[in-house]
Design a protein that fits this description.
Strand order of the largest sheet: 1-7-6-5-4-3-2
Strand content: 35-45%
Distance between the termini: 35 Å
Number of helices: 4
Order of helices and strands: EHHEEHEEEEH
Oligomer: single chain
CATH superfamily: START domain
Radius of gyration: 16 Å
Length: 168
């Protein structure tokens, strides 16, 4: 399943990448406060403004999964995201490995920002997810798409509030 999510942020492209997306405080508050994840940890991060950047992080979302999903993964699961940002194209590319069913669940994608004016942009996220579990793969994919869309809406609200708070 492939889908695209578009969100508008009230800042410019360079500020988004350099002072929001890779900012430690922003990420901690996003995952732990705004999204109420059970766990958020950056395992590694390399590069700086104008350089290729990589980041590996582990998160554990707090979700109310359908019974079929809970039966397969148990009470909770985490995922590791490994991503790379190209300063030339300004595209973030990532792959996610789930803590359970990692051989059957593939999630990845890329996103970038398109300027909409002086202090406004649209983040475009292309997401590719596939769940190969006989009989229930489609149900799990639909659940993952729904929760991803909801999470990105929550992220948009938090990000714009963070941008206003920091005067970015």
């Amino acid at each position: 399943m492939k889908f695209t999510i578009r969100n508008v942020f009230e800042t410019d492209v360079d500020t988004f990448w350099n002072r929001v997306f890779f900012d430690d405080e922003y990420n901690r508050r996003l995952y732990m406060d705004a999204l109420a994840f059970k766990r958020f940890e950056v395992l590694s991060q390399t590069g700086g403004p104008g350089e290729t950047r990589t980041r590996t992080m582990v998160t554990e979302p707090k979700t109310e999964a359908p019974a079929v999903v809970q039966k397969l993964v148990g009470g909770s699961f985490s995922y590791t995201e490994q991503g790379s940002w190209d300063p030339r194209t300004k595209i973030w590319t990532y792959a996610i490995t789930t803590s359970k069913l990692s051989d059957k669940v593939k999630v990845g994608g890329r996103y970038w920002c398109e300027p909409l004016g002086d202090k406004r942009l649209e983040r475009v996220c292309e997401i590719d997810l596939e769940v190969k579990v006989f009989g229930v793969g489609g149900v799990i994919e639909q659940f993952m798409e729904k929760t991803t869309r909801e999470s990105y809406e929550d992220t948009t609200r938090f990000t714009n509030a963070f941008i206003r708070e920091k005067g970015l």
